[in-house]
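step=encode ok
step=design start
structure_in=
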C-alpha cells in the first residue's frame, strides 16, 4: 500500500529558519515501512496552492492520504483534504495528530475526511494499510472513527503502547534528513518518551491522560539502552553536531536521567540540549550528571513572571526564588538556559507582562522564546475562555508566534498586548547582543543603570553612540 503522509507547517520555516523533523510522522512511517508499505511525505511549508498540491498527490498516486494536524494548522489540512476529495475521491483520507485526537467529533463531521485516528496512530494506521492492501473491511479497527450508512462508527481505544522499545526507530529519510541537518547546523532532534504528568491548564496533556485513563501508563520512557542504540545508529549515518531532546520533561525520572548521563558520557562527545521544569532541575546531582555527560543547555518554561497568575491560572506552582535557584545551579555547571514565556494569558494585565520581561532580564537567559497565549480545545483555559466570553468569533491563527490574540480580554487591550510583544522582542535583541558583542552589551547595561532601567533610552543612546563611532571611523579613514 502506498501511503501519502501530509504535514502542514505553514509559517514554521519562517520562524525557525529551516524545516524541522517531526517524530510522530517518523514513527508512523517507520512502522509502515517495516511492514512493507511505501510512504511519501508532502511537507507544506507555504500556504498550499490547489493545482501544485494535487500534482504532488497525483505523482505519488497513493491509496491513502494521511494528514497529521495541530489546531493551528487544521484549516490548511481541511483545505487540502477537500481538494483531494473533489479531484480524487477514490483516495481514502484520514486525519490524526493532536487536534483530531482532542476533538474527533468536529473532525469527523467534515465529509472530506473518511476516517479520524484518535490517540497513538502507529498500529491503527498499520492495520488500516494492511486492510486496504488485502481488500478487507476496516470498520472495526480500534482507535479509528469513520462514517458508514449515515452514522458514525466510534471504535474503542486500544491500550497505550506499554514498551516503546518495540517500535522501530523513527524514519528520518521520509524528511530528506540530510538536508534538514544541513539547514539546522547539524542539530538532530530526538524523543526518549511519551506523555507528561503535570496539570498545566494551557496544555492538552491533562485531557489526553483522562481520555486514555485505564488503558495503561500515560507517561513512558524508552530504556536507556534503546535510546543509546538509536544515537549510535544516527552517529553511524549522519554528522551530528548537537542532539536536541524534545521531550517535555527530559529529567522527569531521576534514576533514568542519571543512568542515561553515565551511559552517554562514556560513549559520545557531541553536546545535547533538553527541555525540563524548574522542579526537575533543582537537584545538583542531576545537573552535575547532565553537565559531565555533555549537556550544553536546558529549556525551561517560566511562562509568567507573576507568581499568582502562574500558580492560579496556569497551574505552574513554582516560586520566582525557585526559578532563580535553578538558574544559578545550572549556570554553576556551565549550562546555557533558554526560557519559554507567554503573554496574553486570561487574567493578565500589562503590568504582569512587564513582570515576566523583568524576571527574564534579571535571569539573563542565553535566549528566550515568547508567544501569545492560544486556547487549545479540551484544555482548562479553553473552557475558561469560552465560559467568560473571551473567544473572538471566527478568529484563528496559523501559528502561536503571531503578535495578536484570538481572545478579547477585559484586563488587557490589544494595544497593550502588542506593546508587551514589542518589549519581549527588545529583550530578545538584548540577549542576542550579549551573545554576539559582550562589550556593547556591558555599555548597554551601564546605560540602563544610568537611566534607572529605562531600556528604550539606553537603546537610543547606544544607537547614537554607534552613529558617532561610525562617523569618527569614517573620518579617520579618509584622513589616513
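sequence_out=
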Amino acid at each position: 500500500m502506498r501511503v501519502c503522509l501530509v504535514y502542514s507547517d505553514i509559517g514554521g520555516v519562517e520562524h525557525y529558519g529551516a524545516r524541522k523533523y517531526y517524530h510522530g510522522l517518523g514513527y508512523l512511517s517507520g512502522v509502515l515501512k517495516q511492514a512493507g508499505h511505501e510512504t511519501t511525505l508532502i511537507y507544506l511549508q507555504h500556504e498550499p496552492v490547489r493545482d501544485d498540491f494535487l500534482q504532488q498527490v497525483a505523482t505519488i498516486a497513493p491509496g491513502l492520504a494521511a494528514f497529521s494536524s495541530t489546531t493551528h494548522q487544521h484549516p490548511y489540512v481541511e483545505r487540502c483534504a477537500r481538494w483531494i476529495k473533489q479531484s480524487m475521491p477514490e483516495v481514502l483520507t484520514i486525519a490524526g495528530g493532536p487536534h483530531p485526537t482532542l476533538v474527533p467529533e468536529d473532525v469527523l463531521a467534515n465529509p472530506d475526511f473518511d476516517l479520524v485516528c484518535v490517540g497513538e496512530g502507529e498500529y491503527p494506521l498499520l492495520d488500516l494499510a494492511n486492510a486496504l492492501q488485502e481488500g478487507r473491511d476496516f470498520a472495526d479497527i480500534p482507535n479509528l472513527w469513520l462514517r458508514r450508512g449515515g452514522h458514525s462508527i466510534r471504535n474503542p481505544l486500544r491500550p497505550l503502547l506499554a514498551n516503546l522499545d518495540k517500535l522501530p526507530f523513527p524514519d528520518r529519510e521520509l524528511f530528506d534528513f540530510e538536508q534538514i541537518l544541513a539547514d539546522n547546523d547539524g542539530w538532530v532532534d530526538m524523543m526518549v518518551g511519551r506523555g507528561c504528568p503535570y496539570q498545566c491548564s494551557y496544555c492538552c496533556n491533562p485531557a489526553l491522560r483522562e481520555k486514555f485513563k485505564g488503558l495503561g501508563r500515560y507517561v513512558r520512557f524508552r530504556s536507556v539502552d534503546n535510546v543509546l542504540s538509536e544515537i549510535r545508529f544516527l552517529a553511524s549515518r549522519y554528522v551530528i553536531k548537537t542532539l536536541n531532546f524534545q521531550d517535555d520533561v527530559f529529567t522527569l525520572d531521576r534514576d533514568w536521567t542519571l543512568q542515561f548521563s553515565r551511559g552517554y558520557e562514556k560513549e559520545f562527545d557531541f553536546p545535547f540540549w533538553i527541555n525540563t521544569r524548574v522542579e526537575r532541575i533543582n537537584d545538583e546531582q542531576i545537573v552535575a550528571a547532565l553537565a559531565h555527560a555533555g549537556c550544553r543547555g536546558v529549556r525551561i518554561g517560566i511562562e509568567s513572571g507573576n507568581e499568582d497568575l502562574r500558580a492560579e491560572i496556569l497551574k505552574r506552582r513554582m516560586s520566582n526564588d525557585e526559578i532563580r535557584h535553578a538558574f544559578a545551579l545550572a549556570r554553576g555547571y556551565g549550562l546555557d538556559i533558554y526560557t519559554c514565556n507567554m503573554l496574553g494569558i486570561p487574567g493578565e494585565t500589562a503590568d504582569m507582562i512587564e513582570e515576566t520581561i523583568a524576571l527574564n532580564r534579571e535571569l539573563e537567559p542565553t535566549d528566550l522564546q515568547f508567544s501569545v497565549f492560544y486556547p487549545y480545545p479540551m484544555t482548562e483555559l479553553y473552557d475558561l475562555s469560552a465560559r467568560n466570553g473571551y473567544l473572538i468569533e471566527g478568529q484563528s491563527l496559523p501559528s502561536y508566534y503571531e503578535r495578536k490574540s484570538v481572545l478579547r480580554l477585559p484586563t488587557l487591550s490589544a494595544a497593550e498586548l502588542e506593546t508587551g510583544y514589542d518589549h519581549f522582542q527588545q529583550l530578545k535583541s538584548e540577549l542576542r547582543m550579549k551573545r554576539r558583542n559582550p562589550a556593547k552589551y556591558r555599555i548597554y547595561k551601564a546605560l540602563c543603570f544610568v537611566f534607572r532601567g529605562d531600556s528604550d533610552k539606553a537603546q537610543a543612546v547606544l544607537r547614537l553612540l554607534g552613529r558617532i563611532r561610525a562617523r569618527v571611523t569614517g573620518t579617520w579613514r579618509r584622513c589616513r
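step=design ok
step=annotate ok -> The longest strand covers residues 295-303.
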